[in-house]
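User: Sequence recovery, please. Input:
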């Protein structure tokens, strides 16, 4: 195998510059800004003690429901998530694009969602009373 020697004049990016450039290129999702839903599917969360999958077949949402849920949700921290929200088996995986970047939104039937950009995951809870009909459980129903 033949390799080309590296030139002494080739620019080298330091670790500090790489980290700064990476932070610039990774954007967090802002649910108050425009986004486009590109696909969605029903999924099951295997990391829960909830074993009732029958209710999942009755949890039906459409694109407009997803848009409202995502727009109405508000950021929560891990403690709030742990103390206020159940984790149900029923989930919807929604792929969205915002500002040219792809995000995966995992909506749980217990009124919370996680949004992942491939690097960072943020949690949001939907406390909006008009959205209660879109979920099986609401915050605090434990």
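Assistant: Recovered sequence (142 residues):
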């Amino acid at each position: 195998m033949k390799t080309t020697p590296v030139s002494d004049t080739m620019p080298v990016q330091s670790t500090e510059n790489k980290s700064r450039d990476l932070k610039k290129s990774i954007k967090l999702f802002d649910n108050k800004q425009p986004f486009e839903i590109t696909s969605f599917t029903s999924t099951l969360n295997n990391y829960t003690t909830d074993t009732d999958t029958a209710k999942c077949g009755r949890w039906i949402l459409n694109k407009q429901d997803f848009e409202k849920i995502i727009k109405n949700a508000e950021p929560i921290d891990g403690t709030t998530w742990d103390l206020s929200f159940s984790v149900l088996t029923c989930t919807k995986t929604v792929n969205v694009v915002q500002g040219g970047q792809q995000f995966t939104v995992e909506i749980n039937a217990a009124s919370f969602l996680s949004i992942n950009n491939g690097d960072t995951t943020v949690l949001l809870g939907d406390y909006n009373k008009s959205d209660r009909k879109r979920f099986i459980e609401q915050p605090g129903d434990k």
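Residues 1-15, 21-25 have pLDDT under 50 and may be disordered.
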